[in-house]
Amino acid sequence: MAKDIATLGRTREILEKYGFSFKKSLGQNFLIDTNILRRIVDYAELSGETGVMEIGPGIGALTEQLARRAKKVVAFEIDQRLLPILADTLSPYPNVRIIHQDVLKADIRRVMEEEFGGIRDVMVVANLPYYVTTPIIMKLLEDHLPIRGIVVMLQKEVADRIAAQPGTKDYGSLSIAVQYYTTAETVMTVPRTVFIPQPNVDSAVIRLTKRENPAVDVIDESFFFQVVRASFSQRRKTILNNLTNQLPNGKQHKETIEQVLTELQIEPRRRGETLTLEEFAKLSNRLVKEWKEKA
Question: Across the strands, what pairs with 182?
């Protein structure tokens, strides 16, 4: 078996061989702890029949661990300078394919159809570049891809927000958006000391298991998310205040909003962070009917 990439000595050797310098703008921090990588792969529960999509493979440290356990790994890498390095470090693994593309601009569904033909079990596993964590996760979920779930390392603060429960300071529109599509759990925390260069924050690994159907039934998904975003727009303001000021034509509908809240037994003076997913669904379903009737 090839020598593990994720050791300090081997990583330095690879970086020196190619004269590679880190680009802060791309959020490049390479993991140098093989045990942590193996645990990340464990949480993804891969088999020899699983296809894996990775984002930001770096020099291939996680990719190689995935390749050893999955049927096929397809990794998106935006940094052209890493392509020859990956061709070298991953040469022992014929089941890996690197795509030089920005995942946020990619047609992921088409890539999956082309690369994972005949593979029914697909997971996303990645050490995400911190500067684009949230847009990547939301794209993966909003594209309604045929995946079982997502296991990703990201900054701990974002992991806390994703897994947060109502009534906590971390709970917000991101928590609701992710939990609408998945069940979310933080499975491990990762200290900053196991990366080069060391990031300024600690990291966490979060596991998102895709729900067969969204957590709640909503009549209009985009309006539901509009209501959620409006409710958190100014955290110190009441739900009534935020909805009135942030929803389109909200000021004209203030009485209606107050009436709907009261009928649903949601105290208008509550703050958005105290509402559950179910309460947001009931609220948006009632409000969308009112909006359509008065449009």
Answer: 210
pLDDT tier, 200 (very low <50, low <70, confident <90, very high otherwise): confident
Say how far apart CA 208 and CA 26 lie, in whole Å: 24
Identify which of 44, 16, 7, 43 has the alpha carbon closest to the alpha carbon of residue 195.
7
Strands (E), 38-192: 50-55, 72-77, 96-100, 121-127, 149-155, 182-190
Q: What number of residues does the chain have?
A: 295
Alpha helices, DSSP H only, in the chain? 8-18, 34-44, 61-69, 83-89, 108-115, 133-142, 156-163, 173-181, 221-231, 239-246, 254-263, 277-294
How far, in Å, CA of 287 to CA of 3, rounded? Answer: 59
Contact yes or no for 14/89 (Cβ under 8 A): yes
The amino acid at 258: E
Per-residue pLDDT of 203-217, as tens digits, reads: 999 999 999 999 999
pTM: 0.92
Mean pLDDT of 88-107: 96
Residue 262's SS3 state is: helix
Helix, strand, or coil (residue 114): helix
